[in-house]
Amino acid sequence: MNRNLSPSKIIDFQNVRLAHHSCKILVLGGGTGGCSMAAKLSRKFKEKPSHVIVVEPAENHYYQPFFTLIGGGIGNVEKCRRSMKDVLPKNAQWIKDCVIEIDPKKNNIKTKNGDTVDYEILIVALGLKLNWQAVPGLVEGLDNPNSQVCSIYSPETVPKVFKAIERTRNGTAHFTYPNTPVKCAGAPQKIAYLAESYWRKQNLRDNINVVYNTSLPVIFGVKKYADALWEVCNSRDVHVNLSTNLIQVRPSENEAVFQSLDKPDKTRVEKYTLLHVTPPMTTPDVLKNNRDLTNEQGFLRVCEKTLRHDKYHNIFGIGDCTNTPNSKTMAAVASQIKVVYNNVMDYLMGKEMSQVYEGYASCPIVTGNDKCILAEFDYKLHPRETFPYNQGKESHLAFVMKKEVFPFIYWNLMLNGYWHGPEAFRKIFHPFAKIDK
Ligand code: FAD
Ligand code: UQ1
């Protein structure tokens, strides 16, 4: 059901009622970026609810970073789920539908149900799609409740993860990172550390080999945190295979097939007693198939500083679906909100755009069931830490932030458009820190 839906026209076409809407600002996607932007913008235009429209098909909104903790046996899916109607801003119209076509020349979009929406400004916040089918055998393994194949990456698959970890008593547990860009590049290894920590507590650690297989040639993109993570792996006896990609799962044989990205004709078959898979990801089809708007990989082409489209100046992008070379995280979205908001306002007033995004991203890398390395960095992969301690060291305080503080900030501040990341705190703790431009 569409909330506040007051289409300007209803067209009866062979007994199918198609609606035509128009608005000042159209937001595609009601996830982290879309919901936060719609909240901020609809507050600005609150006298006219029809000014901001959000197109989003999902019934529920999830705080995705919590999936990792659920996989580690901390909390359940209900803890990180809210009804979409309760999180989307009341001052905006919600069209509960999927966008299937964007026509930037005509400034309109079409939805799956056949509705059309004209816009003055378009904000694209469509996130990343999980491409489970790209790995043969993976869906079959995930769907079978008795198999040991699992994934923290979606609300449907995450409930099985901790059960599978609890059932593992020996053998080899494999964790994977795919050969595509992913959201939260730290999550595929966080779940390995959480599982390792559980098995250690159960006195099972000596019976289980823990192997992290990553398609990347490094364990983490930022040297400071990569060095710290190598120490974690060495001290906990986690074996790391770099440039290693999962290409097939054979659930009935408990076998996983890996390809070496250094020598692509070389494949290796491994037996597993647990297989945690991070699926390959792409942008949603509506973007991927629109080459006028996207790069070769299907990501929305925006200027990495202003976040405005490089060809259509009334289109802006936020979050995981853009081609900006930052790490795809919620923390990155937080600092993009202010940039997109101010640049949209400047554009509407005919002014030069004033705000620049410097690629800030952050990742609380959970390294056990009570500790965390709090990585923060920018486009140049230079650390950009907020707190006055060395965040490359494992800390319990960072774990408490991950478990308690960030979810609170998300539901209460960020989704209402009031959280732009920790930059203000950083300035207080590091008043003389230089910013690389
Ligand atoms: P999303 O929030 O995914 O929203 C995209 C929205 O678009 C969805 O609601 C979807 O339904 C909608 N949509 C898709 N297709 C269409 C269509 N055709 N029409 C209309 N709507 C559509 N980030 C951190 O900062 N810290 C962490 O610790 C962290 N951990 C994570 C752990 C896991 C397991 C996962 C999965 C993610 C984690 N993240 C973390 C990443 C974070 O959740 C994402 O970076 C963030 O949610 C991106 O926001 P977004 O708005 O770009 O995309
Ligand atoms: C952050 O701002 C944020 O948004 C709410 C997250 O969401 C999950 C984060 O994980 C992190 C790390 C940040 C950055 C904030 C601080 C205080 C470092």
Regions with little confidence, pLDDT below 50 for 5+ residues: none
Number of helices: 11
Tell me about the biggest sheet? Answer: 8 strands, mixed
The global form is globular
Explain what the structure shows.
With 437 residues, this protein is α/β, with parallel strands linked by helices. It contains 11 helices and 22 strands. It has helices at residues 32-44, 66-71, 84-87, 138-143, 159-167, 187-201, 223-236, 285-288, 330-348, 396-412, 423-429; strands at residues 9-13, 16-28, 52-55, 60-62, 81-83, 93-95, 99-103, 108-111, 116-124, 129-130, 149-150, 171-177, 208-214, 238-241, 244-250, 255-260, 267-271, 274-276, 281-282, 315-317, 361-368, 371-377. Strands 1, 2, 3, 6, 7, 8, 9 and 20 form an 8-stranded mixed beta sheet that branches. Strands 11-18-12-13-14 form a 5-stranded parallel beta sheet. The longest helix has 19 residues, at 330-348. The chain is globular.
Offer a concise description of the structure.
This protein has 437 residues and is an alpha/beta fold. The chain has helices at residues 32-44, 66-71, 84-87, 138-143, 159-167, 187-201, 223-236, 285-288, 330-348, 396-412, 423-429, and strands at 9-13, 16-28, 52-55, 60-62, 81-83, 93-95, 99-103, 108-111, 116-124, 129-130, 149-150, 171-177, 208-214, 238-241, 244-250, 255-260, 267-271, 274-276, 281-282, 315-317, 361-368, 371-377. Helix content is 26%, strand content 26%.
Key terms for this structure?
eight-stranded mixed sheet; single chain; five-stranded parallel sheet; alpha/beta; binds ubiquinone-1; binds flavin-adenine dinucleotide; 26% helix; 437 residues
